[in-house]
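Q: Hi! First time doing this. I have a protein sequence and I read that you can turn it into a structure. Is that right? Here it is:
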Amino acid sequence: MTLTRSNTTCFMMSYSRDSALEIFDKLRTIYDYLPDYVKLTETTNNKSALAFDNNSKIIVATCGTKDKVRGSTLAFAHLSEVGLMN
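A: Yes, that's right. Below is the predicted 3D structure, encoded as structure tokens:
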């Protein structure tokens, strides 16, 4: 979604830091194997975010992280293992 829509914020949350990072690593692997003509220029690439030059981004956090996406308009949210969240 972030590759095809400008100004889009996608959010991924899990019950633990390890779980959230594992999911984000899977997403990065998928992105890394995309053909170059599909990829955008990355403006941020760190442990908690992947952002592109079309002003779209993917943010990852753990349950209980305050203000990570507060005030953001999320186009997509993936909540993993919701039953384990406190």
